Amino acid sequence: MRNSTLFFYCLSAEVIVLSLLLVHASIREGAEQDSLGEKSALVKRLGLTDLCLFTEARYTRHLSQADLNTPFQDHPLSLEHFPSGSFTQPPTGVTLSR
Question: Rounded to two decimals, what is the model's pTM?
Fold first, then answer.
């Protein structure tokens, strides 16, 4: 068997698996709509905070509860040493106070 034939078979299998994953996702999306409404009502009733996106530093765990100087709490000129801090922006409600 030639390498190009083997590559074609592998590529075909991956395309089939990808299409099955997309079909499964579209089927599950409709089934999860009821569950999403229940979860939303539970979050409102319990008054939960934002979703925890990163586990590294406390100012990246809950972005709406962080202020602008939190990443530099150890030293004013310290550099950002957590990678997740470079993936996010400050919350929209946070402004510089002068």
Answer: 0.41
97 lies in some domain: no
Residues 27 and 53 in one domain: no
Examine the pLDDT at 67 and tell me if it is beyond 80: no
**Distance, CA of 90 to CA of 64 (rounded, Å):** 8
Q: Which has more pLDDT, 93 or 48? A: 48
CB of 88 closer than 8 Å to CB of 63: yes
The answer to whether position 96 is within a domain reads: no
The CA distance from 49 to 35, in Å, is 19
* pLDDT value at 20 more than 60: yes
Both tokens assigned to 56: 């590294």
